[in-house]
Design goal:
Blueprint lengths: L5 H5 L6 H9 L4 H12 L8 E6 L7 E6 L5
Length: 73
């Protein structure tokens, strides 16, 4: 919905209050806005990893994925 602000929000640089006001002004349902507010205020966990996938070309029956910790800077 407001996908262009996700990274800013996760870094604490974007306040969702204005976005919720815009939704109210557009006449969106109170339940939808309430659900989005709850989602925005719940704790956030973000995971980083590198994924390497192996699969035979043209054959989706078997796929192997290896997730590894990303290198630290």
């Amino acid at each position: 919905m407001f996908s262009n602000n996700v990274n800013k929000y996760l870094r604490g640089e974007h306040d969702m209050a204005n976005d919720f006001k815009k939704l109210r002004d557009k006449g969106k349902s109170k339940k939808k806005i309430s659900d989005l507010e709850r989602l925005a205020n719940d704790p956030v966990l973000r995971t980083f990893y590198n994924r390497t996938a192996f699969q035979l070309p043209g054959d989706a029956r078997v796929r192997i994925s290896l997730d590894t910790e990303p290198p630290t800077a």
